[in-house]
């Protein structure tokens, strides 16, 4: 006898998938991301204004005196002040180390040729650079001298969040440190 034939049946759960529901418009999401973008831009502008908008007192060179006074000065003293050359940041740094530094720091600082960023501090993110006539970079023979210079810089200058980088004469990093 032959087997009876039954119609083919599909197993339950198989078959064509149900149609996708129509997509919802996401205007709320677009508006939310737009507002978030504007908020981020406003925060960046506020931080930039806070960093760049420091007062005139913080931009003064620590080695110069305040020349503003309520009384007019004589012509002779004005001429003397004009003739007096402005001291460089490197000279101010060397004088400070000569007064406060250790003997090894004093020897190392004799090789400093230029200092930048020491006169503008805001205690948020201060960055100073010290250039020397040493050679060899961070793995060279004068790396320890670079550390001494960074230490001497921290002795002379104070910041809540400052970093000093010491470079050799070729622009390679000798050392860095906090001040």
Structure write-up:
- This protein has helices at 27-52, 75-83, 89-100, 103-109, 143-156, and strands spanning 112-116, 126-132, 162-167, 173-178.
- It has a 4-stranded mixed β-sheet, with helices on one face.
- The chain has 5 helices and 4 strands, in the order ααααββαββ.
- The chain is elongated and about 110 Å long.
- The relative contact order is 0.11.
- Mean pLDDT is 79; it is low at 55-61 and 64-70.
- The longest helix is centred in the N-terminal third of the chain and has 26 residues, at 27-52.
- α3 (89-100) crosses α5 (143-156).
- It is an alpha+beta fold.
- 38% of the residues lie in helices and 13% in strands.
Keywords summarizing the entry:
179 residues, 5 helices, four-stranded mixed sheet, 4 strands
Number of strands: 4
Strand content: 5-15%
Order of helices and strands: HHHHEEHEE
Mean pLDDT: 79
Biggest sheet details: 4 strands, mixed
Distance between the termini: 101 Å
- Shape descriptor reads elongated
Q: Care to give the gist of this entry?
A:
With 179 residues, the protein is of the alpha+beta class.
List the helices and strands and how they pair.
Layout: H1 27-52, H2 75-83, H3 89-100, H4 103-109, E1 112-116, E2 126-132, H5 143-156, E3 162-167, E4 173-178
Parallel strand pairs: 2-3
Antiparallel strand pairs: 1-2, 3-4
């Amino acid at each position: 006898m032959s087997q009876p034939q039954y119609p083919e049946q599909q197993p339950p759960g198989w078959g064509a998938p149900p149609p996708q529901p129509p997509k919802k418009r996401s205007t709320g999401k677009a508006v939310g991301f737009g507002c978030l973008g504007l908020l981020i831009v406003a925060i960046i502008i506020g931080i930039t204004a806070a960093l760049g908008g420091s007062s005139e007192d913080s931009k003064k060179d620590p080695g110069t005196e305040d020349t503003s006074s309520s009384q007019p000065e004589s012509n002779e003293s004005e001429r003397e002040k004009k003739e007096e050359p402005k001291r460089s940041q490197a000279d101010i740094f060397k004088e400070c180390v000569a007064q406060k530094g250790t003997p090894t720091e004093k020897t190392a600082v004799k090789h400093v040729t230029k200092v930048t960023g020491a006169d503008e501090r805001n205690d948020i993110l201060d960055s100073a650079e010290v250039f020397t006539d040493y050679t060899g970079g961070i793995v060279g023979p004068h790396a320890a001298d670079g550390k001494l210079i960074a230490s001497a810089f921290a002795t002379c200058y104070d910041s809540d969040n400052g970093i000093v980088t010491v470079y050799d004469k070729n622009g390679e990093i000798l050392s860095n440190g906090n001040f």
